[in-house]
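Internal ticket - ligand job 342, phenylalanine:
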Amino acid sequence: MLKLVLKMIDQLKKIKEELLISAASTKEELEDFRVKFISKKSVFSSLFEKFKELPDEKKKEIGQRLNEVKTFAQARFKELAGQVNQSHVTDESVDVSLPTVPVQAGSVHPITQTYFRIIEIFERLGFNVEDGPEIEDDWHNFTALNFPPNHPARQMQDTYFLSDDKNCVLRTHTSNVQIRLMSDEKPPFRAIMPGRVYRNEAISSRAHCFFHQVEGLSIDKAVSFKDLKQTLYHFSKEMFGKDTEIRLRPSYFPFTEPSAEIDISCFICKGDGCKICKHTGWVEIAGSGVVDPNVLENCGIDPSEYSGFAFGMGIERIAMLKYQLDDIRRFSENDLRFLRQF
Ligand code: PHE
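stdout (structure tokens):
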């Protein structure tokens, strides 16, 4: 009898060891496991048969061991079944040699890329980024910027009016943020204002009814035209390459005096003349000037104490130059064949 007890203890030990190293990676292997350890014909069935022959005083101890190993086998079966059902690789209905389904990752829109690049350059020069509303009143879009009522310069802005009294407009430039900043904060400050603007223009390859601008404003004691020139000179070299030169042409904006249009040397033909620069060797990138004292006064800043410069450029225009594109409409068509190239 003792022999039988020892034999059963030994068998249970071996079963436990076997269970510990058991594995199943296919449904067939799992079935083998089930037959051997779980089914009616399992190793436990014969052990339970032998169990009946044991003397009563041994039944408690061996019974406990038997149940423990059997419970362990059931838990192990559940675990293996879970693994097999999850693993599709071992499922023969799946052909693992087939190529995978390609996942097309999105990309950052070229306007956004250009916008980030412009911000990056100016942030390194100490400019903050400021934001403002796209729906604006007459004061912030025009009057405070020295566009008196009925001034001819208003017509140049091709405005979308949102109210009959013409007091509510879709902003025609991000200069409205300059007014908000100067009215709300005390100088000195240096900021750029990127954002979307709207103009009631016929849509063509060169003009759209909405586009994006980045304007810049620097107000401090003794800021002058040469600070403006150096800032845009640095920007042009960073944006278009270190050989880029700039040229300033006299211009007119109601809110700056003097005003200048900024041209850069054509970085494509290097001045030899090409389609992009219309064979002049120069391309226009921005409007700029020294902030008119009237504008400072309109915002509660004393022009005898502070001065500043401002500039504004179209992001689409910069992106078109940078990527050598000839149609502004591409940016808003959402044609993935176009967008994926960036
Ligand atoms: N606001 C002008 C425009 O939209 C650009 C500009 C900004 C010009 C600042 C000079 C100074 O055309």
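Auto-summary: The longest strand covers residues 210-220. Strands lie at 128-129, 135-137, 160-161, 168-170, 189-198, 210-220, 246-253, 256-265, 282-291, 307-314.
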